[in-house]
């Protein structure tokens, strides 16, 4: 069974862990360089939270450089919400000094749906079928480069013109929303299947 790390510096770690364990994965919370590099991880989850805080903590805990290296070597990764922002090559409106890990050639806008969208839960028509998704101060993808597949838009199916809220590359899946908060295992299941 696959071993999946969850970056556990801040944010919604427990829900991802519970879902991955339900699906049969061995879960390793990652707070140290050792946990990252010595756990034989098959994949990594970057949870939601506050991307600028996680970015700061990554550097404070000296996790950023080893993480960038493992991602450059191709470690499969699933990021939700703040995790999507961390994966993005470009943040349109970063917090002062905020950096990303630049794994997926997308540009993201933080808090793209405004405060009225707080805690909205809705069904999305994704490439994997209908998915129950929670949006909490969610980012949107404002542009996507080569090799990036759109897997979900908000309010329309992927062929429509709704804002892009899910993308995938060969290595990474980045979602604006939180399937782990609604108990929808679709994307986690697909992620584990590919490990
Ligand atoms: N708005 C947050 C950020 O900029 C993300 C919110 C979330 O992860 N639920 O990081």
Automatic annotation (TrEMBL):
Kindly tell me the pathway this chain contributes to.
Answer: Cofactor biosynthesis; pyridoxal 5'-phosphate biosynthesis
- Entry EC number(s): 4.3.3.6, 3.5.1.2
Q: What do we know about how this protein assembles, alone or with others?
A: In the presence of PdxS, forms a dodecamer of heterodimers. Only shows activity in the heterodimer.
Q: Which residues form the active site?
A: 81, 178, 180
Which organism does this sequence originate in? Answer: Kocuria subflava
Please describe what this protein does: Catalyzes the hydrolysis of glutamine to glutamate and ammonia as part of the biosynthesis of pyridoxal 5'-phosphate. The resulting ammonia molecule is channeled to the active site of PdxS.
Spell out the Pfam families in the cross-references: SNO
Q: Name one GO molecular function term.
A: pyridoxal 5'-phosphate synthase (glutamine hydrolysing) activity
What is this protein called in UniProt? Pyridoxal 5'-phosphate synthase subunit PdxT
By its UniProt entry, which SUPFAM superfamilies does this protein fall under? Class I glutamine amidotransferase-like
